[in-house]
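Late entry, written up from scratch paper. The run itself happened at the end of the previous shift, but nothing got recorded in the book at the time, so transcribing now.
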Amino acid sequence: MKRLTSSSIKSLLQIAASVITFLLLLYFYMNYQFHEHEEKLTELQLEIKLAENNMLMIRRNEKDFISRNDSKYHDSLELEIGKFEDKLINIHRVLVEEGIQIEYDSLELIQSIEEYGHSFHEFSELIELLYGSGDEQGLFEILKDESIALETKLLEINDFELNKKMLVLQEKVYDFYSGISGKKEVKILFELEHILQLIDIMGNDIYQFNDEKVMNSYLMFKNNFVKIHNIQSVAGYNHRLGLHGDLRSTVHDIEERLNRLFKIVSEKTTLQIERLYFYSQVLSIVLFFLITTVLGSAVVLTSRLEKGIVRSQDKEIKANRAKSSFLANMSHENKNTFEWYHRYDRNFICFKINAYPKRLFSNNKCLISNIINAN
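Output as recorded:
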């Protein structure tokens, strides 16, 4: 009984240790999962912030390229577009992995930035035609040279009115392009129409002189100006018109979408992180109560088993004492019997008790055998 009870206590403690170990492993695993999700959500917020910075760099490089016509800003802008697309793809991937449902299509934003990249490439080619690239002259430089050449040819004709019209035309063209960034489309078209009328009037006056060189110089000036006009009608005279206006509108739309996306995702991720933190706290509390319950149950069961051992030991001691007392009494009674039997003559004893000694020996032998077996 004692050996069996000790084995039961040992098994109980092993079971309790196994349960506690399993609960701790489960807690560490769940806590690891919570922290991993939290890190992903935090990285998601950081990715959106970095995407906003990429968008600012795109706008800055766009502005620098238009104002300086330097290819390095064009290359930097395309590089930032690539980084921006990668970040949007990562943002979309994390949203899908974390199961964050938002009423917003991040893939549409990626498509918008790709369209912006294609449009800017087309716009940059038109800008290079207008302002030149490297050692190659642009149309504005060519127009300037042709204007000077036409002015020189007109001075050779020595016509005051024609030279005056040429000066007025040069002044109108200069005024037209000098403040074009702040002009509205209606005013731009009105001034452009007026310039084209002056060019046609000059053409009619030059035709009267029947000078082929002057006419060729005039036609080159006019054709180049018309070519510039056609390109700018596509590229845009300022940031509100043409491709330039479309690019600016696309950039603003992307920024607005990105801000909405950041706001929505920030709210969602913050809520998700708070939920994960709550689950972690609940898991810690549940783990504490489970471990406490297991330890308490082990202590209670162990105490019961120990009490059972003590009661068994007490019963065994009492049984041994009773056995010893019984043997002592029986030994004394047997001794008295044998003394009485030998004290008197057998012939004196009645024949009815002749069988008593044999029965006595037989019963004593059986009793001793049972006592020995009981031990």
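The longest strand covers residues 132-133.
(Scratch paper discarded after transcription.)
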